[in-house]
Every structure is written in C-alpha cells, then in structure tokens.
Design brief:
Residues 9-283 form the FAD/NAD(P)-binding domain. GO terms for molecular function: thioredoxin-disulfide reductase (NADPH) activity. It is a single chain. With 315 residues, the protein is an alpha/beta fold. The chain folds into two domains: 8-114 and 229-307, FAD/NAD(P)-binding domain (3-Layer(bba) Sandwich); 117-225, 3-Layer(bba) Sandwich (FAD/NAD(P)-binding domain), CATH 3.50.50. The protein has helices spanning 18-29, 61-73, 122-125, 134-137, 155-162, 180-188, 276-307; strands spanning 8-14, 34-38, 78-81, 84-88, 92-95, 100-108, 112-115, 130-131, 146-149, 169-172, 192-193, 198-204, 207-213, 218-220, 223-225, 229-232, 263-265. Strands 1, 2, 3, 4, 5, 6 and 17 form a seven-stranded mixed beta sheet that branches. It has a five-stranded parallel beta sheet with strand order 8-15-9-10-11.
C-alpha cells in the first residue's frame, strides 16, 4: 500500500464514465489513493438504453453510472463533482472554484462530443430516432424504414453497413458528391438514393415520420442515422505535449499511457470507436498497468530510503 503524502493522490481520474470509473475500481481494490472528478455531462445521456454490454444489455447509462459510483466509493475512492480547468505539470489538477488536487499520475477519461449537422430536427431527435451506432441501436429499430444522411465522409459506408438491419434503406446525399463507385455499391446493396438537399426531419406526435427535401418531397422514414463528427474532449492535454494521431486523437499504448509519463487517456477521448463495454475494459487495463507503474516507483523510493536512511540504523 502506498504511503505517499495525505494531500497527494496516487491517481486522479478526470471523467466519471465507464472508462474512468473502471480505472478507479481497479485502483481502489489495489488500495491506492484515488479521486474521480466528474462534471456530470456524459456523452450517452440522451440514450434511454445501453446495448451490447454483457450482463448490462438494456440498462440505462445513468443506472450504470449510479451503480459504478457506489462500487468505487465502497473501495475508498473519492468522488468529486466538479469541472477541471487545467492539468499542470507536476501534476496539479486545478478545479473550477480554486481547489487543486496533487497527483502522482493523471488519467484523462473525458470522452468526446458529437458535432451534428445543422439540419432542423437533428439535434432534437438525437438519441431517440435520429441515431448513429448500428451496434448500439440497430437491433432495436430493425426492419424499419431507415434513412442515412450524407453529411460525413464515411456516410456511404455507414449506409452499406446499416443494410444488415433493414431491407429498406434510403441514402440522402444532401450536399455530398457521390462517386460512381459508391453509387454502384449502394445499388448492389439495394439502397436507394434520394437526391437533393435535406430541408429537415419531419416529426409528428413526437415521432420521426420522414425526411423532407428542399424541393418539398417527403420520404417516409421511421429511423434516420447520421455519422457525427467526433471531437475528443482533450483540451486538458493541450499544454502537456501529448502526441496525437492524424485524426487528432491522443496516442496511447495498449494500457492507456500517453507519450507523457504519468498522463494516461482511456475511453472515447483516445478511441472514438470504443463502446461503453470497450471503454470499461480500457479502464480496467489502465488500472492494472497504473498500479504496476506506481509499484515500481514505490520500490525505487523504498530502496533509496533503505540504502540511505535519514538516521543510522540501530544494531
């Protein structure tokens, strides 16, 4: 067990989603001094259910976090409801309002944000019948008439994938230029193309009814999918010098270590493809590796103290 100063945490985890909480869970069970700081704005808050998580399939995201917070608190992890303003080298985690936490290591688990196209109705229906992930929601809307909005470079591939869940899929290019090759792929998958710019999503009685084009034609649809632009919530890393990849996401090894020793990143902040179950697994891997890195530091410190005692050993 670490015997570091009482005012210094072994690890401060920033972000209390599945990745952050599972990191804290492993470390709490390892008897480390840990704090989880969370601002209370999870990415999946609009979703009613969380799918594809073994033993938690169908559970609400909010319920998962409630259970997770109770579990980590049971191992002595401090849960702090606050916004983090900055992480200073050293490491000092500065909270909004003036308080600061010292840490030996910092885990950033702040997720990402979905930037949606500025089409009327998209933001209002997000997470309801305007969806993104087929693995998260496709089964629940299977066999319904789908629409796929062409507002992202990956939109055609998105439509080709979604064909697995419905025989009735319409692709709306909107302002996107489709190549001849993509048109052939869509035709081969029996996906129709509705040419023209999308005006808005048609909603009646609080249900999606279709997609209206600028010409006034309405294409009836019961579920519409969109591929959002995913932007990591990683501003806290900007002043620390962490390497990033071509997509702008922080680079980590298999355990969540960044290029800056002592700074870790897990979940969607580093991996846009991570589902909740994946993020939790990444947190588990990070917690395991973190404890061993902390142990190596503890052993080195203890050896130094043993070899160079402050007072002569009494024989």
């Amino acid at each position: 067990m670490s015997d570091t100063s009482k005012d210094t945490y072994d690890v401060v985890v920033i972000g209390g989603g599945a990745a952050g909480l599972n990191t804290a869970l492993l470390l709490g069970r390892s008897r480390r001094k840990v704090a989880v700081v969370d601002g209370g704005k999870p990415r999946n808050a609009p979703a009613e259910q969380m799918m594809g998580y073994l033993s938690r399939d169908g559970m609400s995201p909010a319920a998962l976090l409630e259970v997770g917070r109770k579990e980590v608190a049971g191992y002595g992890v401090d849960l702090i409801d606050a916004q983090v303003e900055s992480v200073e080298k050293g490491f000092v985690v500065q909270l909004a309002g003036g308080a600061a936490l010292k840490a030996r290591h910092v885990v950033v688990a702040t997720g990402l944000r979905d930037e949606l196209p500025e089409i009327p109705g998209v933001r209002e229906r997000w997470g309801r019948d305007l969806l993104h992930c087929p693995y998260c929601h496709g089964y629940e809307v299977r066999d319904q008439p789908f629409g796929v909005l062409g507002t992202h470079p990956n939109a055609v591939n998105h439509a080709l994938l979604l064909r697995q869940w419905s025989d009735d899929v319409v692709f709306f290019p909107h302002t996107m230029q489709i190549t001849d090759e993509d048109r052939e792929k869509l035709a081969a998958r029996r996906i129709r193309i509705a040419e023209g710019e999308v005006k808005w999503l048609v909603v009646e009685d609080d249900r999606l009814r279709g997609v209206e084009l600028s010409e006034g034609r309405v294409v009836p649809r019961e579920a519409v999918f969109v591929f959002p632009r995913m932007v990591p919530n990683d501003a806290l890393l900007d002043g620390l010098g962490c390497d990033k990849d071509a997509m702008g996401f922080v680079v980590t090894d298999g355990a969540g270590r960044t290029s800056v020793p002592g700074i870790w990143a897990v979940g969607n902040v580093a991996d846009p493809r991570a589902q909740v179950v994946t993020a939790a697994g990444q947190g588990s891997a990070a917690g395991f590796a973190l404890n061993h890195d902390l142990l190596a530091d503890d052993i080195a410190r203890d050896l130094e103290d043993y070899r160079n005692p402050a007072e002569p050993l009494v024989r």
